[in-house]
Amino acid sequence: MTTSMSAVGFDFEQDQTDLINKKIERIKYADDLIVDFILRVKEDKKFIFDATVNFRWGSAAHVSAEDYDFAAALNKMMDVLDQKIKKEKDKIQEKK
Fold first, then answer.
1. How far apart are CA 17 and CA 78, in angstroms?
2. Element (H, E) at 73
3. What are the backbone angles phi and psi of residue 8, rounded to the nearest 5°?
4. What is the CATH number of the domain that holds 51?
5. What pTM value is reported for the model?
6. Structure confidence at residue 84 (pLDDT)
7. Where is 45: in which H helix or E strand?
8. How far, in Å, are 27, 38, 87 from residue 93 at the CA level?
9. Residues 31/9, Cβ–Cβ less than 8 Å
C-alpha cells in the first residue's frame, strides 16, 4: 500500500503525523487489497479530511470528514473508511 499525505493551508506537526500513522494501522488488515491511500487535510477554520483508497481490482473509495478538532475529524474519517474497506472486502470474497 502506497501512502501519501498532504496538508493544505498549514504544515503537519510531528504529533499530527504520528497520529495519522497510528490511525492508518487500523486498516493494515487490508494492506494486500489496497494499492494507494491518498490523504489530503485542509485547514479552513475546521480540519477537513479527504481520503481516497484505490483497491487492486480497480475500485476506489472516497471518504471525507470535518471537525474543529484534528483528532476528532481524523477519527470520523477513519471510522467511515474502515466500514467502506470492510464492505469492499466482503464484496470481493462473495464473488470468489
1. 15
2. helix 70-95
3. -120, 125
4. 3.30.160.100
5. 0.88
6. 93
7. none
8. 17, 24, 10
9. no
Domain count, the chain: 1
Instruction: Compute the distance between CA of residue 76 and CA of residue 27 in angstroms, rounded to an integer.
Output: 14
Q: Show the domain range for 84.
A: 2-95
Q: Using 50, 70 and 90 to split pLDDT, how confident is the model at 96?
A: low
Contact in structure between 47 and 70 (CB atoms under 8 Å): yes
Partners of residue 5 on adjacent β-strands: 39
Q: Which of 93, 83, 32 is nearest to 61 (CA)?
A: 83
What string of DSSP letters covers 30-42? GTTTEEEEEEEEE
- Tell me which residue has cell 481516497: 52
Distance separating alpha carbons of residues 61 and 79, to the nearest angstrom: 13
User: Which residues on adjacent β-strands are paired with residue 6?
Assistant: 40
Mean pLDDT of the chain: 92
Look-up: residue for cell 498532504?
A: 6
